[in-house]
Amino acid sequence: MLGKATRESRAEPLDDETLTRVDAWWRAANYLSVGQIYLLDNPLLREPLKAEHIKPRLLGHWGTSPGQNFLYAHLNRAIIERELDMIYIAGPGHGGPSLVSASWLEGTYSEIYSGVGDDEDGMRALFRQFSYPGGIPSHVAPETPGSIHEGGELGYALSHAYGAAFDNPGLTVAAVIGDGEAETGPLATSWHSNKFLHPVTDGTVLPILHLNGYKIANPTVLARIPRSELEALMIGYGHTPYWFEGGFDGEDPMAVHQRFAALLDEVLDHIDTIRRDAHESGDPGRPAWPVIVFKTPKGWTGPREIDGQPIEDTFRSHQVPMADVRGNERYTGLLESWMRSYRPEELFNDDDGRLRAEVARLNPHGGRRMSANPHANGGTLTRDLVVPDFRSHAVDVPTPGASVAEPTRVLGGWLAAIMRANPTNFRIFGPDETASNRLNATVDVAGKTWLAETLPDDDALSPTGRVMEMLSEHQCQGWLEGYLLTGRHGVFNCYEAFVHIIDAMFNQHAKWLKVTRDIPWRVPIPSLNYLLSSHVWRQDHNGFTHQDPGFIDHVVNKKADVIRVYLPPDANTLLSTYDHCLRSRDYVNVVVSGKQPGPQWLTMDEAIAHCSRGIGIWEWASTDGGDGEPDVVLACAGDVPTVETLAAVDLLRQHLPELRVRVVNVVDLMRLQDEHEHPHGLPNAEFDALFTPDKPVVFAYHGYPWLIHRLTYRRTNHRNIHVRGYKEEGTTTTPFDMVMLNELDRFHLVMDVIDRVPGLRARNAGLRQRMSDERLRARQYTREHGKDAPEISEWVWPAARELGVAVPAADDTAADFSAPPPPPPVK
């Protein structure tokens, strides 16, 4: 079926009664959309419009609304006749009036918001609240029933639609794509999602390209290319395009309805055929799924002309076609004529203003209403994951540093077990980096989703795969968001530096979660879980472009109720952390973990206790006598900073054995913040107990150092906290040279202790100089040998050294494609 030619149907399947009902529902939705933008009062025009009936500030977007209202009406007809389970995704940026109108007409809005009834008073409240102080936004927002897609940012409608359809075989997702939105990179890429949709085990996505010609001030690209080019583009993406054009040159609306109803039925029949053939043959193939190119005038049914300037079918209808209406009698008269053109007396009862029964018959019932479909309130459908005990994947740690493991590879074994236990409820998403990030076991268990061509040398591609990989962070994020918002679970794994590509998408999802916490009818959904590996300190071979830990800084700007950031230092803490993340709801969990072989510090029981605290003293590494008062606190957050901190402690033990050192490790970064700023924040008394009220603190941190200052600025001892971290210095070099470039290395940490503990500098100038010399010697070794000196790369903690433990050097260049090493000892 791939490459099937475009079609246009001419059949007229609707009887007069259904045709009239569809048109009436469309007019009602248009009337409500205009009313929301313009009116404060007199919602049914029972008296001539006056200035006091009109909003003083006119905000909103009209241009896309009539086309979306038209589509919604026809989809409702199809839902009723075919008993479809369907949700609607409104891609055009600010189509809020349309979707709010639809949910009010369907009765859902009044069921949810008791203050906005289904009568004339309710209509007045509906109009007043729109884009009004204390009301609702002008775009499709979390407050809008039936929505899983934030309309404030463009580009993600189609990827959200596919995410919703994965593992939802009974669901149809109507994804309306604005032609302005279609110009964005993420949307242009998301057309390829059809190569990942299984016609038997997944649902259906029906893309509808709303080709109405204009953005805010310019024409849209796809509206100004020849039809043959646009058809070829859609066919090239692997779709069967169906073209519809209507509403131009004063065409009779009834004729437009008839033509579109026939085309929609043909499209839905085509979808049924695809799914039936796949069921019967057992071969999903790669269907050329239909796409509708829906071309109608911008601002359809609105004013044709105002003050001699054309409005309908121009960019001038994009937002508010007629501004400054209040107090302008001529404009007020034009507005009244516009609204009366929808003949509201035929749509709403004379006595109470409710939608007339014959019009309301176009509304599906219960959960079949797109505004009430449970898939659009995914928490109502969420099933808890079946989570195998992560303890069975524990790395045996006889003594700190005595075991070596690749943390993300260990995690991958456990995630594979989760995938096996949840074959239709859990997926892993990543931009071609799942193997590179050492999660190979998940691929071995479930394969990678792929319905395009396969060749003999391809690795683990499968039409029913559970690992979703496409070299677009946008698509991975969008797919996962759609999957979560409809009640399923997942993980997004990514290189740390390149997760920045989805900064704006993360923003929108975090804002969505923040808002939904205050919407009682929105049921909590599974958390958005990131796993960031190939991180800044182990991208030495790829160079400066791959070295950026700033996503954490971006994340912590968001509302504290939503955000969690974890930096587990080894495999056991990573397992414990991720078990917590996958069980959580309504959070964004950012977990940063290394994939390289490294020393393991805590037994599983210790790791669980440490992760439960989120922060704690490592007494086995400290020399302050347990309950004694330290001379200095060495703190660390992140796996490489932890290694460098412990190596610095080793040096201090050798050269300054009388110095009382306390080691504090941080897993949950938000524990550093004040308890009044974040739910995980430590009370001041507990923070002071760890970091002391007045002793020097040398903090080795995974990311940009100023974030630690930002989180701790209210603390008693903030003036004594000195942070080492990434200082935007990087290149292609060795792992240890990377930490030296940013002054996070063990020698610099020792120098910091000497500089900050009172009395040490004068007595230990020679030791400080030797530390500086060691840095120079280590750098020179890299320049001569192309690798780190053995005493650096093979360093182990003293207790492990006594057991003869050796740490293999990191090798990021070869291990991605080599056979996995033998599994670590299991406790």
From TrEMBL:
Q: Where is the Xylulose 5-phosphate/Fructose 6-phosphate phosphoketolase C-terminal domain?
A: 595-797
Entry cofactors = thiamine diphosphate
Q: Name one GO molecular function term.
A: aldehyde-lyase activity
- Answer yes or no on keyword Plastid: no
**Catalytic activity, EC:** 4.1.2.-
Q: A GO BP term, please?
A: carbohydrate metabolic process
Task: Kindly give the Gene3D superfamilies that the UniProt entry links to this protein.
Answer: 3.40.50.920, 3.40.50.970
Domain Xylulose 5-phosphate/Fructose 6-phosphate phosphoketolase N-terminal residue range list:
14-380
Per UniProt, the keywords (alphabetical) are: Lyase, Thiamine pyrophosphate
Q: Give the matching SUPFAM superfamilies.
A: Thiamin diphosphate-binding fold (THDP-binding), TK C-terminal domain-like
| Pfam families in UniProt | XFP, XFP_C, XFP_N
Give a yes or no for keyword Lyase in this entry: yes
Q: Which PANTHER family match?
A: PHOSPHOKETOLASE-RELATED
Q: Which family is this protein grouped under?
A: Belongs to the XFP family.
Instruction: Give the matching NCBIfam families.
Output: PRK05261.1-2, PRK05261.1-4, PRK05261.1-6
Q: What is this protein called?
A: Probable phosphoketolase
